[in-house]
Write a structure and sequence with these properties.
With 357 residues, the protein is α/β, with parallel strands linked by helices. The protein has helices spanning 14-25, 40-49, 59-63, 80-89, 104-117, 131-141, 169-172, 176-191, 306-323, 331-350; strands spanning 5-10, 30-36, 54-56, 70-73, 93-97, 121-124, 148-156, 197-205, 240-247, 251-258, 267-274, 277-280, 285-290, 293-297, 354-355. The protein folds into two domains: 5-126 and 307-329, 3-Layer(aba) Sandwich (Rossmann fold), CATH 3.40.50.720; 128-305 and 338-355, Dihydrodipicolinate Reductase, domain 2, CATH 3.30.360. 34% of the residues lie in helices and 25% in strands. Helix 1 links the parallel strand 1 and strand 2 (30-36). Helix 4 runs parallel beside helix 5 and helix 8 (176-191) packs across helix 10. The longest helix is centred in the C-terminal third of the chain and has 20 residues, at 331-350. The protein is globular. The protein binds nicotinamide-adenine-dinucleotide.
Amino acid sequence: MANVIGVGVIGAGNIAEMNHLPGYQKQPDVKILAVADVNGDRAKAVAAKFGSPHSYSNYEELLANPEVQAVSVCTPNFQHAPVSIAALNAGKHVLCEKPPALSADEGRRVVAAAEANRRTYMICQNHRFRPEVALLKRYVEAGEFGELYYAKASMLRRRGSPGGWFAQKKLSGGGALIDIGVHALDYTRWILGNPRPRQVLGVTRQKIGSYQLEEHRSYTPADMRGQARPAGWAGDADELAFAVIRMEPDITLMLEVSWALNIEKDSTSTEIFGTKAGAKLEPLTIYSEEMGRLVDKTPRVQPIPYAETHARAIRHFIDCVQEGKQPLSDGAQAVVTLQILDAIYASSQSGQLVEIP
Ligand SMILES: NC(=O)c1ccc[n+]([C@@H]2O[C@H](COP(=O)([O-])OP(=O)(O)OC[C@H]3O[C@@H](n4cnc5c(N)ncnc54)[C@H](O)[C@@H]3O)[C@@H](O)[C@H]2O)c1
């Protein structure tokens, strides 16, 4: 067996408890050594649940533990870059939750720290590990679609504003766009071969604002657990974003995301269109023309539970740490995603088309 890697998790909220720690626990060559959270009781309870011998209320203490070789950063967004930089400077490999930073400039500083310290830096863009996403990318690479020139990506919720820190721009970096838009943007561009963005016209809005439903089904950040109105608070976050993103050589991506929109039901979809064929992802179907006939192909691919996408991302992270490989979702690609997010927010504010150099 390869070297056993000692792992620490910083931020012991939902994603750490539901996805990262169970993902690490599945790996035979990982030892969970430490959990840190500003809420020391939560750190302790989560550490106990996953058999971690150490818990800390200050992540710097976790970083000072020499047995910890790699960390997951699962804090609120505004901490991602500073905690990642501190971890890399302490010689740890980093798997950071999305978004990697609040801006492209901040993202570049993390990439510089990873390079200076020669450590693995991976962004947890777990949708790339969905089998249907990876399969569609393989069809693209095999030339199935001819020239790809148009794509649509959307993630829409009818009522799904998480509230808490997610709804405060200062802490989250925005709102629905930086929270779920970052996923749709990342995996759709990855399927397309990461085309270079050139021009962006974007709109972000908060129109519905806070709401209260009798039955609340949306995501609840750890600090809001057990409160009477855990979510549905809009704060100063954007709840809706859409954008037209022109990329090289000539591919236009339409992005549409929302935490709250008056639609029938929540939906997630990606579609790509080329000269020879098009496809939709949910469920994976390819539309082409063969023998003078219109043909719809439905490759058999079994979607996996969401937590399993994290487990697979974590397996890949550990492989990269052990073998010194470049991660599938690396810092350079993350900076481009952040440039697009920056441009959408800037375009929304100015009402102008924004060029990306
Ligand atoms: N990939 C995905 O699908 C996915 C899904 C949900 C959340 N996320 C991301 O995961 C991150 C965490 O989200 P969450 O839903 O778990 O939030 P959460 O609010 O449930 O948990 C965050 C935890 O971080 C702790 N924390 C805050 N500052 C800290 C610090 N300086 N040091 C240590 N701990 C600190 C909080 O006390 C809290 O326990 C976010 O960036 C979010 O975007 C990703």
